[in-house]
Design a protein that fits this description.
The structure is a homotetramer of 188-residue chains. Chain A has 188 residues and is mainly α. The N and C termini of chain A lie far apart (53 Å). Chain A has helices at residues 3-26, 33-40, 47-50, 54-78, 83-100, 102-111, 119-142, 148-168, 174-186. Chain A is built from nine helices and no strands. Chain A has two domains: 1-52, Orthogonal Bundle (Arc Repressor Mutant, subunit A); 55-186, Tetracycline Repressor, domain 2. Chain A binds chain B through residues 25-27, 29-30, 106, 109-110, 112-117, 147, 150-151, 153-154, 156-162, 164-165, 167-168, 173, 176-177, 180-181, and chain B through 25-27, 29-30, 106, 109-110, 112-117, 147, 150-151, 153-154, 156-162, 164-165, 167-168, 173, 176-177, 180-181. Chain B binds a DNA duplex (21 and 21 nucleotides) through residues 3-4, 7-8, 11, 32-34, 42-49, 53-54.
Amino acid sequence: MSKHQEKREESKTLLVNTALQLFSRKGYDGTSIRAIAAEAGVSLGLMYNYFESKEALLLEIFNRGNKDIEASFAKAADVPGAEIDQLEQHILQTVHLLKEKRAFWRLLHSLRLQSNVLAQVVEETNAQTAYIEAQIRQNLEAAGIPSPDLEAKLLFATIDGIAHHYLLLEDYPIDGMAALLIQKYKSR
Amino acid sequence: MSKHQEKREESKTLLVNTALQLFSRKGYDGTSIRAIAAEAGVSLGLMYNYFESKEALLLEIFNRGNKDIEASFAKAADVPGAEIDQLEQHILQTVHLLKEKRAFWRLLHSLRLQSNVLAQVVEETNAQTAYIEAQIRQNLEAAGIPSPDLEAKLLFATIDGIAHHYLLLEDYPIDGMAALLIQKYKSR
Amino acid sequence: MSKHQEKREESKTLLVNTALQLFSRKGYDGTSIRAIAAEAGVSLGLMYNYFESKEALLLEIFNRGNKDIEASFAKAADVPGAEIDQLEQHILQTVHLLKEKRAFWRLLHSLRLQSNVLAQVVEETNAQTAYIEAQIRQNLEAAGIPSPDLEAKLLFATIDGIAHHYLLLEDYPIDGMAALLIQKYKSR
Amino acid sequence: MSKHQEKREESKTLLVNTALQLFSRKGYDGTSIRAIAAEAGVSLGLMYNYFESKEALLLEIFNRGNKDIEASFAKAADVPGAEIDQLEQHILQTVHLLKEKRAFWRLLHSLRLQSNVLAQVVEETNAQTAYIEAQIRQNLEAAGIPSPDLEAKLLFATIDGIAHHYLLLEDYPIDGMAALLIQKYKSR
DNA sequence: AATGAATGAGACTTCATTCAT
DNA sequence: TATGAATGAAGTCTCATTCAT
């Protein structure tokens, strides 16, 4: 990669990260391009050298975020083990990601119900979501649990609910919650 | 009630309901006053005869919504029964409310993470939320379940997660989810 | 005058007086029809039964105010006396009117430079103004003062300046100012 | 100064001057941002790149105007001479300023009685006003004139009245007025 | 005559986006 | 590439005025 491309990549990453922080804190509509540029310490117009529009910037945030998630889960999926252990791994992995990418998850959860802003983004995230749910279902099925479909949905909803509360509240005991949830599945 | 007051109340309710539908579908920021007026079939300025601002309109939506919720749960709380039965009642009641006031819940869930628009509204809803969680904890405690605090948080997160998915997706099997959840608590 | 007409006149006067107070305090542009109606304790629409528009109401205020001024000066003009005494009378009369109709004068002075609001009103007041100045000039001329034209303009400007400061400031020593001004003309 | 800063300053000054002309002609409330932009030949939104609000633009007009006045009087104050000559200088200086900055003075006089729009602006101008009056009083006192306080107020009111009439009327003989006024003080 | 609900033009302001430098 | 001045559509809100009751 040339010096030039490196610098380009650096600026892009700076803008993406700055935008993510602001979108997460103030919301997508509540964050202006000007504010992002100011916070990043670059000029207003620079953003348009890298992104076609505000929405394209958001899209890039999601692309990178999704890539991170995928990578994280892909790594976890390679670990062999009993189905229940895989569920445990999934839960712990989710908690880990939530903590590490809190801003991204906040943004995702805050935009999930705003269909106006995000046809394309929601598509992709829904696909990922469906995939995760399918994996959970397979694990439950393999573990011989009855009505694995509803059970998968239930576990998924529970994880999502915990995530949402963690993102919403300060001092949410997410580790305790994860441990309790895992224990419930182990004790069956 | 005078003719004028009747008309007033009618217009207010029309605006509140129209705004709720649009806020729920397009988001608060994505819905303009003009759009609300057009959808309601009234003039642009009418809203300002009844509400001080767009935010005041939102506040009224929440006031009415919170009143509905309170009334619904107050009625349910009177029903005596074993603690587990009360949990069952609470879950069924929540499902009932979700179905009946889908638009309101969508709005609430979509705004929960937007700290910019909502100091006051969030306050009140959080208070209600905390109260519900406390009730769940009491029930769990009375039923002799260990670590009732985390358990309450877990049940609450699960219900919230189910609600969120119901609000997010078409054709979510919420009744099946509720039944499965109830069964889990009954079988302990 | 019929009972009906009396009541009509009463309502009109109430609106005129209320509007005068508010226009004087908050300015013409800063006072809404709604505010006038509220302050007068009548309905918003009532005003339009008596006045064609907000501007027509202002016009009526000026008509009545001008009538008062005219009457006051007409009475004073009848008093015979030396020319200097007539100047004294004029000054004292003006001070008297300023105190008695402070709100009206404030309104007049605040609108005199706003050509946008008031073609018609300014016309009439200017006519009166010219007439008063002419009278002053005649008196000065009769008293044998040189360049009576400029002198009249000067005295007029002085009186107007005193009036303006009286209307602008709290606790302006207008009586002392009048006495000093009179003394200057007497001592010539 | 950079190219950007130059352009910035140019646009700011263009807007300030255009706004001053329009405010002076049509009044502050009677002049819309759209009208200012159109008259200046720029876009509607440009103003907001330089001023926070319409009121901030007005404030800038006053800041620049006050600076001009201060500079003008500061220069005059340095000239030594008898007290009466200083009064003469003050009067001539005022006339000069009135002619040179007619629009600004018209605006000032038209806003002086509108307490609603102007807390901050009026403050500063009042301070300047008080200072000028105090200087007049000192001169009169030094010249041995009795009741210098009232005399200062009288002279100040006279100058203000002349200014007001000059600003109000076309073809006002302000030079003749100034000469006459000066002569009165010289002949004592 | 009196009421006040309803209207809609127009005001101020924001902000994503363009483009000359 | 980087800058930031400039644009103008669109948003919220105000208010004089109309009109059915």
